[in-house]
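Protocol step 4 of 6.
Sequence for AA9 family lytic polysaccharide monooxygenase (Lachnellula arida) entered exactly as in the expression construct, tag removed. Do not edit the line below.
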Amino acid sequence: MPVTLLSQSLRCTLNQAIGGNHHGPVLIHMSKVANAASDIGSGSWFKVAEEGYNPTTKIWRTDSLNTNCEKKSFMVPADLAPGNYLVRAEAIALHTASTTGGAQFYMTCFQINLTGSGTAAPAGVTFPGACNASDPGILINIYNNLQSYTIPRPAIFTG
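Step 5 output, structure tokens:
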């Protein structure tokens, strides 16, 4: 099932989703919960989408988010068990990430109710704790002739 995340406004705005030099990846995680309206998100999260840096074009996913009217689409794995889920969309700004603790995390969550006949219940990670301040995708100088980028863990659950 395709899902498109939109900003608070349903039209393109003059304001950037994550402005300035806040370059970095965009990650999407999901967590199955008993009640999406009241759950606080302390359970297990699995990643369903990620986009980072394109060394050919030298474009970060946050840059694309800004030029794409703050929209990000992703596919929900078809074999997930039905029920309530929290979805966590996260942008990691790396403009000051050349020192430990310099990466900035911007996230938002929303609720969805999946239907279907899937049975998958992926293992996941918890937040905080999914990554460390010294991980390669978190502690990085993005202004030093960057040739590649390692997106923070966990691996994507594809179904």
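Step 6, annotate. DSSP finds one helix and eight strands in the chain.
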